[in-house]
Each structure stands twice: as structure tokens, then as C-alpha cells.
Amino acid sequence: MVAIITMVDIINPIAGMIMVVGCVTLLVIIKEPVYGVIVLILMIPFVGLPNLNIQLGGIPGFKPQNIISILVLILFVTSRKPEPIGKLEKSFCIIIFAILVLSNLRTLTFLHNFNAFAIENLDTIRYLLSYLLKPALFFLMFVLIIYYIRSEKNILTVFYGIFASVTALSIFIIINYVFFVQNKTDFEMVRNQIGKSLNMHGNDIADFYIITIPVTIAFLLNKKSFLIKCSLVLSLATVAILYSRTAYLVIALCTIIFFIISGRKNRLPPLLFFGTCAGVFLIPRSMINRIMMGLSGGMSNMNDITAGRTKDIWQPLIDEYISKPLVMLFGSGRYSIVQTDAFISGKILKVGHPHNMYIEMVLDAGLIGLVIYILFYTKLLKKLAGVANELYENRLHKDIIYAIIVASIGYFISGLSGRSLFPAATNAYIQVLLALGFTISYLYPQNNDQSINEK
User: What separation in angstroms does the CA of 109 have from each of 156, 247, 290, 423?
Assistant: First the structure.
């Protein structure tokens, strides 16, 4: 189904959309909610495609992606009873949603600035539907999984849905590279062209692989599945094409960390040897030069190391917010970079986000919002680590949770050069994986809150 939808989507977007809607309708009829989540996961990398953003009938918010997400929500609510979850997870759901809503509502005070930058003419309703509802629907997957997916069979089904999704993305990118990219050795142009085909920046596309490769490795060590093997091979090939130095470095680091914390240090020497050999052949020479750019001068060449972000984006924004303590504490609302003095006066590049998810969070939700996010994610990962340490009999579950922790850490490291802490397509896999980590932990009641045990 994934392969057919991907192929049809390239040839005929309307036919691809009809197939997806047909699949969801069938799921509503047969009452199989877990496959509804699979459909949402399959859509994650392709949300930028025009056929998922067509406004049907000219009705605001009446877009295929929104319709399918709401249909899946209805499917769960009408066919399953929510299960109890821990206090930490419940608080996470509430607080993350609250920060998202409050930040977007504050954007309405400078909507004219946002429209001027985005070259749009959005009124209040259209802005909220596009920039509040859509991220909320990405976070919906975390809520659905953690409340409704409890059997081991369904948990594994969702994981295989992730592998199918990233495999479909890899096929899409490789097809574009082989058949539609003219100069296949100019990887900067290749990345830009592939980004345009998915309506995403190349670095954002690489996020999908930063997040999923550790989990793919964890499964491959425990299950000899053809899909998982294909997913890993195609993922590595696609990462090479995407020309993202952050992805190269973070994926390598996360792989090493996973093998260490999962107790497989003895496998690192051969892994490092073959990984280095593969890197020599897969990573373009121009990217190796780019990775080394500025490193010879140490921290004094930070602007070169960060590809100009330090002087052209970060420093002016930091200087401005330090001079406004209250604004730095509470933030100014989503996409508030467009109303900063640094942006308006031309001290920074004309960008819609600061290319650093921690600075973005300070700008949009303040230091308070950033601290809340960091505390919640730290506690969530700490709780998962505690569960993994207690799992002695099921090695697959133990490795999965370790991989989820490593994938999260990898995403947070990559956030130093971009990404976002707010719910978005590029971090939706993180939300899905965290939810799956907790659903695995719920299979072992002794490792969870007594409130879950005592229904």
C-alpha cells in the first residue's frame, strides 16, 4: 500500500489522495484504529505535498490532511476506551498543548508582520487553522498511541508503520534523484531540488532519519526482517544524498551511543571500521570539506562552523532579548522573530526561524517555556531509562527503549542548528516514538505509577 500510494502520488496526486481517504474510510468501517495511526504516520514526511494541502470546496481548514486526522480521531474515540496513563505523561500532554495554543494566540497581535514575511493574507481563523490546528494534529498521534495502543501486537504494528513510512520517503527521494535531478554530483542543488519536491528544507528531511535510524538498528539486532533491512539501507543511501552535515555527525554519534548503552561495546570496532569505509564512499567529498570548515581555528571560527548563523542570526537576537528581560522570560508568540528589531532593521537574515530550536523557544515562549520543555523531556527520558534498566527478559523491548532515548538525544543535539521543539512534521516521529516507549512500559505494570496499576 505504501509503495502504491507513493508511486501514484508522484504520477497523479489526486489518485493518491483518493487512495488514502479510501483506506481511512475502510478503517472506519472495519473498526481497526491502529491502522488509522499507520495512515497518519505514512503521511508525516509527505505533508508538504500539494495534494495534502488542497483546500477542498474553498472551506478554511478543509484540507485532506486535517480531514484524515480528524477521521482517525473519531475512529479511536468511537471504537476504543482510553486506558489510564501516568501523571507525568498526562501532564506532558496538557502542558505541551497549552504552550502551543498560548504561543499561537499571541502571534495574532503581530499577524500583519507574519503575513508580510510569509507573503500571505491570513485572517485570524485561517492563521489558527494553518499554524495551530496542523501542529496540534501532529501531537495528536502521541495522545492516541499513549491512550489507546496497549497490546504488544499493535505496538509492533505501529513500529512497522514507521519503517514503512521512512522507506516510502527514501523511495520517493531516490526516484527524484535518479530520474529528475539533472546534475547528480552537485549535492547542494540536489538537496534544494528534493526539498522543493517535498516542500521542506533538506535539513528538515534529514531529521526523519536522525530520529528513525537508531530504532531501525535496534530492531535489526533482534529481528531479521526484510522491511527493516531495506529501511536501513535506503535510509543510509538517502542521508548521503541529502547533504546534511548535521545528519552525518548526529547519526554517527547516536549509533555509537546506542551500542554503548545497549551493552554492545565489543561490536564498535568493526562497526567503526565499516562505517568509516562506507562514509568514504557515500559521503560526498565536498561535504567532508564542509564538515571540516572552520574547525582548524577552534572556537574562534564559530561563525564558520555554524555556517554564518552566529553573526547573521543568533548574536543580534540574543543581544536584543537580553536587553528585554520580561520578553526573554515570557517570549512573544510563535514566529516572533519577524517582529524583532533585529529582523526589521536587517541585522539578521530574513528567516522565519532562528535555526536553533532553543533560541526559537526563548523567542516564542520565553525562558519559562524552554525550561518547561527541557524538564518534561528530561523526566520522560529518565523514566524510560528506568524502565529499560529493569527489563531483563525481553531484549527487543529493552533495545527499543534505549533507541528511543538515543533518537531523542540526537534530535536535541541537532536542534543546535535548526529544528523546533514545538510540534511539527519534522519532530512528529519523536512524539510517536516517545508514546510507543511508554506503551511498552505499560506492558510491565511493576515499572509504572501505582495510579496505572490501580485502575
Answer: 45, 36, 41, 21
Please name the helix (run of DSSP H) or strand (run of DSSP E) that holds residue 127, with its range, or none. Answer: helix 124-128
Q: Which of 429, 384, 444 is nearest to 166 (CA)?
A: 429
CB 344: neighbour CB atoms within 10 A?
Answer: 11
Q: How far apart are CA 203 and CA 192, in angstroms?
A: 10
Q: What is the pLDDT of residues 369-396, one digit of tens each?
A: 999 999 999 999 999 999 998 887 889 9
* DSSP of 141-163: HHHHHHHH--SHHHHHHHHHHHH
Which amino acid is residue 29, in one-letter code?
I
Grid coordinates standing for 149?
495502543
Which H or E run contains 98?
Answer: helix 87-107
pTM, two decimals, is 0.89
Is 223 strand, coil or helix?
coil
Concatenated DSSP letters of 332-391: --TTGGGGSHHHHTTSS-S-SS-S-HHHHHHHHHHHHHHHHHHHHHHHHHHHHHHHHHH-
Model pLDDT for residues 202-222, shown as the tens digit of each residue: 888 999 999 999 999 999 999
Sorted by sequence, the CB contacts under 8 Å of residue 372 that are 6+ apart come out as 95, 99
**Where is average pLDDT lowest: 8-17, 64-73, 121-130, 171-180?**
8-17
Cell of 26: 475502510
Which residue bears the cell 521542506? 200
Residue 160 CA to residue 181 CA, distance in Å, equals 30
